[in-house]
């Protein structure tokens, strides 16, 4: 991939860097956060130690996926950032939809295609002394899913071979523009304008789910979408409850 071409295709005036190989683009940008002066998009052709939530890993093979992180500064610090990972999911899903690949969202922020995970999102933050926060938004998107990689992942994983044939720099530029638009909107208005958009894309709307915390079932009910702050609405036998995204995992049970 070529940084200059991506910048030329993109509307967003974001600096783009491409490296051949690195452990984790999120780790790299987090380390640089104290010195960053402007947003940066860091793309790795090959990411060898991709991270997921709660110490989980994101696996990829060179040439078969997009692995990148976007560093973006928010003036209001951590308190205002609840819901950001979900807004990023909306941006990613809507951009893929515009490009012809229909996808859905699983709370809080997995992008699914035909029920399997197509893309993962990991948002990490570095809070500055003045209270502002650099967010490092890491994204892995499967383009092609070789059997050997799916075996290593250990569960079904989706890919999008049709979009994989698109010019990768153009695809990356479209994703960058979708993210930059969403992040600018989020900075102005928070998650509120994304809630209905998230619910339209909800993969498991109305379906029975369980909420797992370190493998233990914490709640079960019907998934009813998200509220204006990005909390999951769960209709349980005892009524509707709201769940804050943390290290919990959601599974369907139907
Ligand atoms: P859960 O699915 O339990 O809610 P999560 O959303 O927290 O997990 P992430 O942190 O987003 O998961 O991603 C890590 C998980 O994604 C891994 O534990 C693995 O199961 C799965 N995974 C890793 N690499 C890929 C990949 N390339 N494609 C699809 N799934 C993957």
From TrEMBL:
<protein>
    <recommendedName>
        <fullName>biotin--[biotin carboxyl-carrier protein] ligase</fullName>
        <ecNumber>6.3.4.15</ecNumber>
    </recommendedName>
</protein>
<feature type="domain" description="BPL/LPL catalytic">
    <location>
        <begin position="1"/>
        <end position="187"/>
    </location>
</feature>
<dbReference type="InterPro" id="IPR045864">
    <property type="entry name" value="aa-tRNA-synth_II/BPL/LPL"/>
</dbReference>
<dbReference type="InterPro" id="IPR004143">
    <property type="entry name" value="BPL_LPL_catalytic"/>
</dbReference>
<dbReference type="Pfam" id="PF03099">
    <property type="entry name" value="BPL_LplA_LipB"/>
</dbReference>
<dbReference type="InterPro" id="IPR008988">
    <property type="entry name" value="Transcriptional_repressor_C"/>
</dbReference>
<keyword id="KW-0547">Nucleotide-binding</keyword>
<keyword id="KW-0436">Ligase</keyword>
<keyword id="KW-0067">ATP-binding</keyword>
<dbReference type="GO" id="GO:0004077">
    <property type="term" value="F:biotin--[biotin carboxyl-carrier protein] ligase activity"/>
</dbReference>
<keyword id="KW-0092">Biotin</keyword>
<dbReference type="InterPro" id="IPR003142">
    <property type="entry name" value="BPL_C"/>
</dbReference>
<dbReference type="Pfam" id="PF02237">
    <property type="entry name" value="BPL_C"/>
</dbReference>
<dbReference type="InterPro" id="IPR004408">
    <property type="entry name" value="Biotin_CoA_COase_ligase"/>
</dbReference>
